[in-house]
Each structure stands twice: as structure tokens, then as C-alpha cells.
User: Fold this.
Amino acid sequence: MSLVLDPAAQDLLFREARTANTFTDEPVTDEQVRAIYDLVKYGPTAFNQTPLRITLVRSPEARERLVALMADGNKPKTATAPLVAILSADNEFHEELPTLFPAFPQAKDLFFAERPVRERSAGMNAALQAAYFLVGVRAAGLAAGPMTGFDFEGVRKEFLDDDHAPLMVVNIGHPGPDAWYPRSPRLAYDDVVTTV
Assistant:
């Protein structure tokens, strides 16, 4: 059985998708980011949770503060990418559940009254949404450079609050010269899939 998605789209979204390490100086507009979000917001999550929060780092002052919190190898590309986004999980996502999951509005209090439960669920579902976001960046014809090499607590204190947990920092733009490392291997189907 073949996939329904056109092979060119498969290539764009997956086979050619790699972490970009350099970018051109062509800007990424708010309209492009809005179009990405307006597409990926439909990706499924548990209870239709929407814990992902996106902080766009646009001002030179904010960029400088963020670069200082990045691991040394991530500083140059974060300093020069046209746009940088901090993706975080909102641990108070449950407040939106009566609106977002009207089929079961009591889920907010029945399942998510306790903070540790919310944090686990927010982290898992925001990570899922972050993956959709990266695919959305590719669908917009842009390249993404997701990174977890940074001071998580520093980023939380500098850009977020106690209710938001940083997941990753993503450089976004059009790929520049030598943007890609060679394609790394992937595990084969039989190495990851077990039937019981």
C-alpha cells in the first residue's frame, strides 16, 4: 500500500527535512508564522489539549538575551537566524478545556486538577504540537533548526513564567549556504515495530 500524500509533499515534509544550521537574511513574517499555526493547530492531541505556546524572539535586545542562554555551538546560528521561536508548554492549559473539548467539559477538573498531572500531560502534548509546528515550517517552504542545547531554567526565567516550561528553541528561515549536515541514518522498520 502506498501513501496518499503526493511524493513531492512527502519529500518536503519528511525525507528532505533536516535541522538547518545556516539561514539567509530573508525575513520570516508574522503572516508566515500565522499561516503555519493556522495549519498545525488542527493536529490531534489528547482531549484536544493545546498547551503549546510560541514566543517569537524578534527584537535585537531579546535576541541578545536568548543567545547568552544558548549552548556555545548554538549561539552563532541563533544570533543570525531570521526568526527564533521559543516553544513551551503551558501547565495551565486545562483552563481552556471546557471550550476546546466541549464533548467532555468536566475533563478539566476530573483529570487535570493536580499540577503534576497537568505538567506531564502538558509536556507530552506540547511536544506533539511542537513536532506539528516543525512540519508546518517545512510546509511553508522554510527550514527549521530545533535545539535543546540551552539553559532551560534561564530561558524560563528570562522569557516565560512559572506556569510555562520551555521545550525547545527553533531557528526559522530560508536555508543558507552549507545549511545541512549529511543525512544521518535511520532505524529500519523491523528495528522499531513489534507486533504482539
The radius of gyration is 18 Å.
